[in-house]
Amino acid sequence: MNSDLIARLRAQLGGPRDGALLRFSLGTALLSNGDACGAITAFREAVGFDATYSAAWKMLGQALADSGDTGAAVDAYRHGLDVARTRGDKQVEKEIGVFLRRLQRPAD
Fold this sequence. Notes:
The chain is mainly α and about 110 residues long. Helices cover about 80% and strands about 0% of the residues.
């Protein structure tokens, strides 16, 4: 199921519909399929197309956290938080705030 979606999304790369939303959709599908590394690439490409795409920054942070790269995840979340605040994207701002606090919580 997810493999079919991923294949269809990949088939559109480089075409007329290629852009931040396509890369975001691919990253989301890859992440839900357990491919954090592939998702990281797709989300980085999404923010490369549109650096003000706050949801892509949030998902990049999540993919980085899932891959074990906590430092890079914190950096992505912080950048996404700045973007969300600038755009007035309150929901993403709240979500990123929660994820950041979780990552920065001292280990028990």
